[in-house]
């Protein structure tokens, strides 16, 4: 009997796991570590303030999706779901990786996923049994805001190239539709394949239209970087524009600060809410860059999942989706970033809670989507600078 009791206690105190799926190699390898840092900070706050459930430790094993390889993403997700036996997943980051991970592992396994970075409209269309959520707004909104931003700056003619996947197509479709509706002219809208060494043919096609502004909707560490470098070397285009996948100082360093000075971009941002400032302070204290793209969204994804597990009362996957909606949605006592101990006590007392996060309020709609804001970014003096909200 003593052995059985001891075994039971040991099992009861097993770690609770939420996985993290990110592009640690590939098109966003320079963007992924700060995003993981954001998620890991939330895990740290949970463990420093009493742990999860009955004082158990929250751990966050990682998997590499490579961003663009659906097989790698599926394999990483399968390991999380069936080997690591995670309760939930933060991620994936790139849209194709999220869709592959969801369809091939998470949905069959009944595992909730919360992506802090998958922005393509295709995520909303998944037949996911209410298992796939995101703490970042859809590109249907970012594309619209990028188009209006360019028109407001008097940029009325552009050539567009986008990476030929769900992310690139979704963002390009939203951008082009709004840009043309606002009176702009898209002289060329050209798909390109990622991870190629030469895009001079595509650049020749686009530059032949006479457009001086090149919009690149791709990734900072692969095709986006190569296209901008070869555009400069070819002496074509005078203005460069990008979406959130291009916002990284690694891009500026690789192509050249002088080359990209004045480049315009957008990315999902954090609204002016109390949680945003609190996260900035918490991140700075931890030595993390609070302005890193999607870091705040990753913190919120991990913190929300931890709250949902606590609300659910166990590390079971069953019921977690509804618990996630419960802790993210008003009414309820407001929980801000870093307030794990408060959340844990309120949930123990049977009280309703409402997380108001670092990057937004996260009132999930029926598709698991959230409203949001978009930041204007610009390259100034060798780095991307936040110019404030796009409010047009």
Automatic annotation (TrEMBL):
The name this protein goes by in its record: Branched-chain amino acid ABC transporter substrate-binding protein
Listed Gene3D superfamilies: 3.40.50.2300
Keywords carried by this UniProt record: Membrane, Transmembrane, Transmembrane helix
Compartments reported by the entry: Membrane
SUPFAM superfamilies reported for this sequence: Periplasmic binding protein-like I
Domain Receptor ligand binding region: 39-371
Pfam families in the record: ANF_receptor
Stored PANTHER family: LEUCINE-SPECIFIC-BINDING PROTEIN, PERIPLASMIC BINDING PROTEIN OF ABC TRANSPORTER FOR NATURAL AMINO ACIDS
InterPro entries for the chain: ANF_lig-bd_rcpt (IPR001828), BCAA_transport (IPR051010), Leu_Ile_Val-bd (IPR000709), Peripla_BP_I (IPR028082)
CDD domains cross-referenced by the UniProt entry: PBP1_ABC_ligand_binding-like
Species for this entry: Litchfieldella qijiaojingensis
């Amino acid at each position: 009997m003593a052995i059985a009791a001891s075994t039971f206690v040991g099992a009861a105190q097993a770690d609770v796991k939420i996985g993290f799926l990110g592009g640690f190699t590939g098109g966003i390898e320079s963007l992924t570590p700060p995003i993981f840092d954001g998620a890991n900070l939330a895990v740290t706050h949970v463990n420093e303030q009493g742990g999860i459930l009955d004082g158990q430790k929250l751990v966050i094993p990682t998997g590499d999706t490579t961003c663009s390889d659906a097989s790698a993403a599926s394999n990483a997700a399968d390991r999380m779901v069936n080997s690591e036996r995670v309760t939930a997943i933060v991620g994936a980051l790139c849209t194709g990786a999220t869709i592959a991970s969801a369809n091939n592992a998470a949905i069959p396994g009944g595992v909730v996923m919360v992506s802090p970075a998958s922005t393509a409209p295709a995520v909303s269309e998944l037949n996911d049994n209410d298992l796939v959520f995101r703490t970042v707004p859809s590109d249907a909104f970012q594309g619209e805001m990028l188009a209006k931003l360019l028109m407001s700056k008097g940029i009325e003619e552009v050539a567009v190239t986008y990476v030929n996947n769900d992310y690139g197509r979704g963002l390009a479709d939203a951008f082009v539709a709004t840009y043309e509706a606002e009176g702009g002219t898209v002289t060329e809208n050209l798909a390109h394949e990622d991870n190629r060494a030469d895009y001079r043919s595509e650049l020749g096609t686009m530059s032949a239209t006479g457009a001086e502004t090149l919009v690149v909707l791709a990734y900072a560490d692969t095709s986006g970087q190569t296209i901008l470098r070869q555009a400069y070397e070819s002496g074509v285009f005078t203005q460069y524009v990008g979406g959130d996948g291009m916002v990284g100082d690694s891009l500026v360093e690789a192509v050249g600060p002088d080359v990209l000075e004045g480049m315009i971009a957008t990315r999902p941002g954090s609204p002016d809410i109390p949680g945003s400032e609190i996260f900035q302070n918490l991140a700075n204290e931890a030595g993390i860059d609070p302005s890193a793209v999607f870091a705040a969204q990753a913190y919120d994804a991990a913190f929300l999942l931890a709250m949902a597990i606590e609300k659910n009362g166990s590390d079971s996957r069953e019921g977690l989706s509804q618990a996630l909606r419960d802790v993210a949605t008003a009414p309820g006592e407001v929980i801000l970033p870093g307030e794990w101990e408060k959340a844990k006590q309120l949930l123990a007392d049977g009280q309703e809670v409402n997380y108001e996060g670092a990057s937004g309020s996260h009132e999930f709609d029926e598709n698991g989507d959230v409203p949001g804001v978009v930041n204007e970014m610009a390259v100034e003096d060798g780095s991307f600078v936040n110019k404030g909200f796009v409010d047009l």
